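Q: Start with the shorter request: fold the first protein.
A: Done. Sequence, then structure:
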Amino acid sequence: MDFDKYCIDRPKHVRLADWKTDDKGKLTKEKAEALMAELQGKLLDLQERLYAENQRSLLVILQARDAGGKDGTIKHVMSGLNPLGVSVVPFKVPNELEAAHDFLWRVHAVAPRKGQVTIFNRSHYEDILVPTVHGLADKEVIDKRYRHVRHFEELLADSGTRILKFYLHISKEEQRQRLQERLDDPEKHWKFNPGDLKERALWDEYTTVYERILSETSSSFAPWYVIPADRKWYRNYLIASVLVQTLESMDLKYPRIAEGIEHITIE
């Protein structure tokens, strides 16, 4: 399948309305779920090669609106990976220590080391998104943050980190249904945050900022993918496919064995 239509690999003017939230390609749910087992097997093998090579790393960034499916993506796409080589970092409101530093300080500290896969559940983009929508920082500060983010991601890429950024694109109606499900199911009450409704009321404002983020921070070394996410099964299939495609393109190698090791016999 051609994933280029979902990829923004250079600065360009982005309109989220140009991407369907309920796209399913030419797949059925049954076919996609059958393919997922093969993809997860490939992911595990590629992760092992990345870990063994210990020269490069992978950073996966997940951004979405509330109920957009970040947790579900991690659960269903990444669950088959070896925990020894994976870390998941959730980003919340900066604590007192984090707020006393520049906004990228806490991010750089948890970037993946060589051989590792790190998944950001939200990310440094929250420090552009929320302050812009809520007017918590002036335009000059926000504009500088766009520049700092581009340079930061370039630094990571130059240091051997492959970066993939996924915007999980859901419709307003799909978000309404998912939030309502959290209210209707007692076992999901813990997921519901009344503050999500206040953010939902700012849907258009968030759309505008996300469009600027996608437009200005897409690059060949840190591309954004706009993932149609109304259908969870297609979201999972797409992200798993892009991960496999990217890791395969890195041509990961196992380290050379020590000379003469093939002649050793364990007594």
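Q: Next, the second protein, separately.
A: Sequence, then structure:
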Amino acid sequence: MRRLIAVLMLLALPALAQEPAKSALAQLDPAQSAITAEGRDRGKPRPLNLQLALSQPVPYRVYFLDSPPRLVVDFRELDFSRITPDAIPGRDLVPAIRWGRFRPGWSRMVVELPGPYALRSAVQTQGAAGAGARLNLAIAPVEAKDFVTRGNALSALWDLPQPAALPPPQPHRHTGRSLRVAIDPGHGGHDPGAQVGAISEAAVMLGFARELSDMLTRAGFEVVPTRTDDSFVPLERRMTIARAGQADLFIALHADALPAGEAAGLSIYTWNQEADDRASRELAMRHDRADLLSGVDLAGADDEVAGALMDLARLETHPRSEAFAKFAVSELNKSGIGMHRTPIRGASFSVLKSPDIPSVLVELGFLTDPGDRHNLFDPAWRAATAQALTRAIGAWAQDDAIRAGLARH
């Protein structure tokens, strides 16, 4: 039955234009980075400032080594592959710089120094509206007796929260490969979604999708994005992208608008064609409206035979979707994320119709609610929410694999 459904769905859906990207590494901008020295050059070591422009914040640690004196900076998921140290302005102020990947998930920068140094400060700041980050390291010359290295004292300075503590990623229960998660930021292109002033749902969701995708990649999962820029992707095609990417879980991201006072807080939706909640019906119409404007009538997408097969397939996938929703609510509660009074709800959102991939739609909040709007632009709230969802995926994957094993016996 699973193979028959897969064949029918592949025949019914259009081909992909391109393979979705599966990487979410931070990048270094050498033109905006620099090494500078304080004071006049009198032939002796001077205080140095290392400024690195990054595409996004990353966890890092700083320490020193001797013979020769070196500053070492380890980064979590920073891509140095397309640039050379000579591209950094001020490179001639130090004897040498080298960098590269030194173990899975980590990159290392080594800066040889003209003598023993100590760290004065290490600050990483994020740009406005999540536009990149800047890491500033200030070091100053010290006497040899005051030179503290990792060899004689474990002096590693860590900054930023570490990636979410997760159980080891579970392989897919049938293929044995890493779990793949389709991340679907709602709307895009000529369909901005909900709008409050200059704020559009499409832009906010794309930003959060990138942060969540980065966290999932660091945790060992593979990500299948349905869109990576401000482009319009029809709802049926979003499912096509997920299916062609062999996604094991589909997560749609939204932050809608409803009349003031009608809705606030995060909620998670699973497929329910019989849902009669007024707010759910209104949101379903809002989500599908863009496709209707583009000439795609979702109402006639299923004929009677295909619809019956889909219903049969959902007998397996729907409970798995609901199970993920419960894991997500549990982890979000542990993180103190405010949710709707009914956090798990059903709705007939077309993007949840896929019968062969467990699917949920996460309403991160409502742009029409001031509290939700504040959360959506709060880096700490977004990070905590992304971490909770990442933990939920790991826990769900373990539970899903166990249940699959029990079902085979």
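Q: Describe the second briefly.
A: The radius of gyration is 25 Å. Residues 304-334 form the longest helix (31 residues).
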